[in-house]
Amino acid sequence: MDFIYLKTENIAGLQQKYTQSGGVRPFGLSTLIVGFDPYSRVPSLYQTDPSGTFSAWKANATGRNSNSIREFLEKNFKETSGQETVKLAIRALLEVVESGGKNIEVAVMTREESGLRQLEEGEIDAIVAEIEAEKAAAEAAKKGPQKET
Protein backbone atom coordinates (compact mmCIF):
# COMPACT_ATOMS: atom_id res chain seq x y z
CA MET A 1 0.00 0.00 0.00
CA ASP A 2 1.45 3.37 -0.88
CA PHE A 3 1.79 6.29 1.52
CA ILE A 4 -0.51 8.63 -0.44
CA TYR A 5 -3.23 5.96 -0.52
CA LEU A 6 -3.06 5.58 3.27
CA LYS A 7 -3.27 9.35 3.82
CA THR A 8 -6.22 9.58 1.43
CA GLU A 9 -7.97 6.71 3.19
CA ASN A 10 -7.47 8.54 6.50
CA ILE A 11 -8.92 11.83 5.17
CA ALA A 12 -11.87 10.05 3.53
CA GLY A 13 -12.55 8.20 6.79
CA LEU A 14 -12.66 11.51 8.65
CA GLN A 15 -15.07 12.95 6.07
CA GLN A 16 -17.27 9.85 6.37
CA LYS A 17 -17.24 10.05 10.18
CA TYR A 18 -18.47 13.64 10.10
CA THR A 19 -21.21 12.69 7.62
CA GLN A 20 -22.62 10.10 10.02
CA SER A 21 -22.09 11.89 13.35
CA GLY A 22 -24.93 13.79 14.94
CA GLY A 23 -24.34 17.34 16.11
CA VAL A 24 -21.46 18.06 13.73
CA ARG A 25 -21.48 19.58 10.30
CA PRO A 26 -20.25 17.31 7.51
CA PHE A 27 -17.45 18.47 5.26
CA GLY A 28 -18.96 20.04 2.15
CA LEU A 29 -16.05 19.70 -0.20
CA SER A 30 -14.26 17.28 -2.45
CA THR A 31 -10.49 17.10 -2.27
CA LEU A 32 -7.80 16.17 -4.75
CA ILE A 33 -4.81 14.61 -3.03
CA VAL A 34 -1.62 14.28 -5.02
CA GLY A 35 1.87 13.19 -4.13
CA PHE A 36 4.74 10.82 -4.63
CA ASP A 37 5.10 7.79 -2.42
CA PRO A 38 8.31 8.41 -0.42
CA TYR A 39 9.50 4.83 -0.95
CA SER A 40 8.48 3.88 -4.49
CA ARG A 41 8.56 7.48 -5.86
CA VAL A 42 5.40 6.62 -7.84
CA PRO A 43 2.96 9.52 -8.35
CA SER A 44 -0.60 9.16 -7.05
CA LEU A 45 -3.78 11.20 -7.49
CA TYR A 46 -6.92 10.56 -5.44
CA GLN A 47 -10.24 12.33 -5.05
CA THR A 48 -12.35 12.24 -1.90
CA ASP A 49 -15.93 13.44 -1.65
CA PRO A 50 -17.94 14.68 1.34
CA SER A 51 -19.50 11.25 1.93
CA GLY A 52 -16.06 9.77 2.56
CA THR A 53 -15.62 7.78 -0.63
CA PHE A 54 -12.38 8.07 -2.55
CA SER A 55 -10.98 6.90 -5.87
CA ALA A 56 -7.70 6.93 -7.79
CA TRP A 57 -7.29 8.89 -11.02
CA LYS A 58 -4.71 9.57 -13.72
CA ALA A 59 -6.15 13.07 -14.31
CA ASN A 60 -9.03 14.86 -12.62
CA ALA A 61 -10.66 18.16 -11.72
CA THR A 62 -12.95 19.33 -8.96
CA GLY A 63 -15.21 22.33 -8.58
CA ARG A 64 -17.35 24.31 -10.99
CA ASN A 65 -17.09 23.02 -14.59
CA SER A 66 -15.16 19.96 -13.41
CA ASN A 67 -17.35 17.66 -15.53
CA SER A 68 -16.36 19.52 -18.71
CA ILE A 69 -12.70 19.41 -17.76
CA ARG A 70 -12.90 15.73 -16.81
CA GLU A 71 -14.52 14.88 -20.18
CA PHE A 72 -11.77 16.80 -21.98
CA LEU A 73 -9.08 14.96 -20.01
CA GLU A 74 -10.70 11.57 -20.70
CA LYS A 75 -10.58 12.27 -24.44
CA ASN A 76 -7.09 13.77 -24.55
CA PHE A 77 -5.02 12.20 -21.75
CA LYS A 78 -1.89 10.28 -22.75
CA GLU A 79 1.14 9.27 -20.70
CA THR A 80 3.57 12.07 -21.59
CA SER A 81 6.45 14.13 -20.29
CA GLY A 82 6.01 16.65 -17.52
CA GLN A 83 5.88 19.64 -19.87
CA GLU A 84 3.27 18.00 -22.12
CA THR A 85 1.19 17.14 -19.05
CA VAL A 86 1.27 20.78 -17.91
CA LYS A 87 0.23 21.84 -21.40
CA LEU A 88 -2.68 19.36 -21.35
CA ALA A 89 -3.83 20.70 -17.96
CA ILE A 90 -3.76 24.28 -19.24
CA ARG A 91 -5.53 23.24 -22.45
CA ALA A 92 -8.26 21.61 -20.31
CA LEU A 93 -8.64 24.74 -18.18
CA LEU A 94 -8.87 26.92 -21.29
CA GLU A 95 -11.98 24.92 -22.25
CA VAL A 96 -13.88 26.55 -19.36
CA VAL A 97 -11.98 29.76 -18.52
CA GLU A 98 -13.17 32.84 -20.40
CA SER A 99 -10.15 35.12 -20.12
CA GLY A 100 -7.32 32.93 -21.40
CA GLY A 101 -4.39 32.49 -19.06
CA LYS A 102 -5.27 35.46 -16.84
CA ASN A 103 -7.35 33.38 -14.40
CA ILE A 104 -5.22 30.24 -14.43
CA GLU A 105 -2.79 29.19 -11.72
CA VAL A 106 -0.68 26.06 -12.09
CA ALA A 107 1.50 24.25 -9.58
CA VAL A 108 3.74 21.38 -10.69
CA MET A 109 4.70 18.58 -8.33
CA THR A 110 7.91 16.67 -9.08
CA ARG A 111 9.88 13.87 -7.48
CA GLU A 112 12.72 16.21 -6.50
CA GLU A 113 13.16 17.27 -2.89
CA SER A 114 11.71 20.76 -3.48
CA GLY A 115 8.66 18.99 -4.85
CA LEU A 116 6.19 21.77 -5.66
CA ARG A 117 6.67 24.76 -7.93
CA GLN A 118 4.13 27.44 -8.82
CA LEU A 119 4.37 28.46 -12.49
CA GLU A 120 4.98 32.15 -13.10
CA GLU A 121 2.38 34.14 -15.02
CA GLY A 122 4.81 34.51 -17.94
CA GLU A 123 5.29 30.74 -18.17
CA ILE A 124 1.53 30.20 -18.28
CA ASP A 125 1.11 32.97 -20.88
CA ALA A 126 3.77 31.33 -23.09
CA ILE A 127 2.01 27.95 -22.92
CA VAL A 128 -1.37 29.60 -23.64
CA ALA A 129 0.14 31.36 -26.68
CA GLU A 130 1.57 28.05 -27.90
CA ILE A 131 -1.83 26.33 -27.50
CA GLU A 132 -3.60 29.17 -29.34
CA ALA A 133 -1.05 29.01 -32.18
CA GLU A 134 -1.60 25.24 -32.47
CA LYS A 135 -5.39 25.76 -32.59
CA ALA A 136 -5.04 28.43 -35.28
CA ALA A 137 -2.75 26.17 -37.34
CA ALA A 138 -5.20 23.26 -37.01
CA GLU A 139 -8.10 25.46 -38.14
CA ALA A 140 -6.09 26.76 -41.08
CA ALA A 141 -5.21 23.19 -42.07
CA LYS A 142 -8.92 22.23 -41.96
CA LYS A 143 -9.81 25.06 -44.32
CA GLY A 144 -7.12 23.99 -46.76
CA PRO A 145 -5.18 26.28 -49.07
CA GLN A 146 -6.89 29.54 -49.94
CA LYS A 147 -7.68 30.00 -53.62
CA GLU A 148 -6.80 33.37 -55.05
CA THR A 149 -9.29 34.99 -57.39
Automatic annotation (TrEMBL):
Q: What would be one Pfam family of this protein?
A: Proteasome
- GO cellular component annotations of the record: proteasome core complex, alpha-subunit complex
Fetch the Gene3D superfamilies from UniProt. Glutamine Phosphoribosylpyrophosphate, subunit 1, domain 1 (3.60.20.10)
- Protein keywords: Proteasome
A Gene Ontology biological process in which this protein takes part is: proteolysis involved in protein catabolic process
UniProt key word Iron-sulfur: no
Which InterPro entries does UniProt cross-reference here? Ntn_hydrolases_N (IPR029055), Proteasome_alpha (IPR050115), Proteasome_alpha-type (IPR023332), Proteasome_sua/b (IPR001353)
- Is Glycosyltransferase found in the keyword set? no
**What family does the Swiss-Prot or TrEMBL record give for this protein?**
Belongs to the peptidase T1A family.
Please give the PANTHER family that the UniProt record associates with this protein.
PROTEASOME SUBUNIT ALPHA/BETA
UniProt protein name: Proteasome alpha-type subunits domain-containing protein
User: What organism does this protein naturally occur in?
Assistant: Brassica campestris (Field mustard)
Organism ancestry: Eukaryota, Viridiplantae, Streptophyta, Embryophyta, Tracheophyta
